[in-house]
Amino acid sequence: PILYSYFRSSCSWRVRIALALKGISYDLVPVNLIKDGGQQFSAEFKALNPMQQVPALKIDGIILSQSLAIINYLEETHPNPRLLPQDPKKRAQVRMIADHIASGIQPLQNLSVLKQMGEKKTEWAQNCIASGFQALEHILQHTAGRYCVGDEVSMADLCLVPQVANAERFKVDMGPYPTITRINKALLELEAFKISHPSRQPDTPAELRA
């Protein structure tokens, strides 16, 4: 497999965690979202992913984009360890939380949107994340065990950790979100989350390396 990724991309990080958890080795091709006006806009990359976004994964003779679609494919082709619970209710909760982050928070504060916001970009990002986290904190109080849904790592957790990192980067006050904070801390102790971390990628700038 070949993963087209950017060290700081939260969507790419989700997929890196999934690959690490499932023990799938891969080659990483960095796509710098800032350099040269954004390498994702090159004709070469557009041929791989017409949406001109990372991640993209070349695997089993196909090219997949969209992090949750990639994770679902990995789940179906490499079912162990599972990232979707067997219980239908818990599985629905995992998907709900993953969609809450992947559709309801992350796109509102990603690079393309922030460029449009100009000087207000930090305030905009903080408001989008805080609004989403207020709802997420409430949801997790009903679903969480050690992790987002019960005591098994799931696709929801793969979305949570990168989003908390974004919140910290934009200096969101995490005080009102004790459940999110607790789960995030527990997940960051796991090896798959450590090795996939933005501070440990081939394209991480020297000053941001762990």
TrEMBL record:
GO biological process, one term: L-tyrosine catabolic process
Subcellular location: Cytoplasm
Catalytic activity of the protein: RX + glutathione = an S-substituted glutathione + a halide anion + H(+); 4-maleylacetoacetate = 4-fumarylacetoacetate
PROSITE patterns in alphabetical order: GST_CTER, GST_NTER
Residue intervals of the GST C-terminal domain: 87-206
Single GO MF annotation: maleylacetoacetate isomerase activity
Protein name: Maleylacetoacetate isomerase
